[in-house]
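Predicting holo structure, phosphoric acid mono(formamide)ester bound.
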Amino acid sequence: MRSLIDIVDLSTAELDALISVALDIIAHPEKYSDSCKGKKLATLFFEPSTRTRLSFEAAMYELGGNVLSVTGGATSSVAKGESVADTAKTVSCYADIIAMRHPKEGAALVAANNASIPVINAGDGGHCHPTQTLADLLTIYREKGRFDNLTVGFCGDLKFGRTVHSLINALSRYNGIRFVLISPEELKLPSYVKNETLKKFHLPYVQTTDLEGAMPSLDILYMTRVQRERFFNEEDYLRLRDTYILTPNKLRKAKEDLCIMHPLPRVNEISVSIDDDPRACYFKQVLNGKYMRMALILKLLKEAQV
Ligand code: CP
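Done. Tokens:
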């Protein structure tokens, strides 16, 4: 049974095909309005979410399907100690596909290994968030018209920011990509991401603490929230949380066609005064996420039938 746990589960051809389907959905939504008639998506969210859960649910409704939902462990039998494996086996009796968010790294894989229906990882701890990467890729494609020859800056919490790890992997497949990794020393990109992606594929990258210095070179600036929920020590979080706040002043030397992204939720990383700047793309990312999740649901349900 095909599931999506990590963005590496999708080949480059499959990523490109998902983008094509999403663009077709945008152009011809009526063609897809009954595609999932009679099918049910179960959203199992054991960690907070606004965008991911609601966009999965909106995606399924717009495909003509239905949704079953568990939000927070307290309202399900997980609160009584039920395992992820048993939960996945149980939900397989009611639904056709699962989207699951869980605070523990590897939980989505455990669910996929025990479910008899496709499982989509909607975020497992600090590990992966592949459908955010799909949203990010569609945003880059719609804004830039390409993936090749881009300088992409990631700024903020590159240690715990799972969306950063997945997007670096996805973009590393294209030609002429350069990365600028902007973070405090304590929140640098983990060595395993560097070793398994950047170094393995000999991708050019620089690490810096200087956002304004990096700004003129960037085609994409991907801001991230400092992930309070992953810190062991509140003092460290408070010290690091406002290291980077993007303001209009900091954009003075940015390119006219810079694409400013953020997976959201935003806490304080981007001043709201930037929201009306035509370079601000983070709410477009939110909408693009729904289209890519529609394309992904269609793909996994189709593959489950053969
Ligand atoms: N980007 C994202 O995953 O947002 P939520 O946590 O609101 O789902």
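Residues 49-52, 123, 132, 263-265 surround phosphoric acid mono(formamide)ester (CB under 6 Å).
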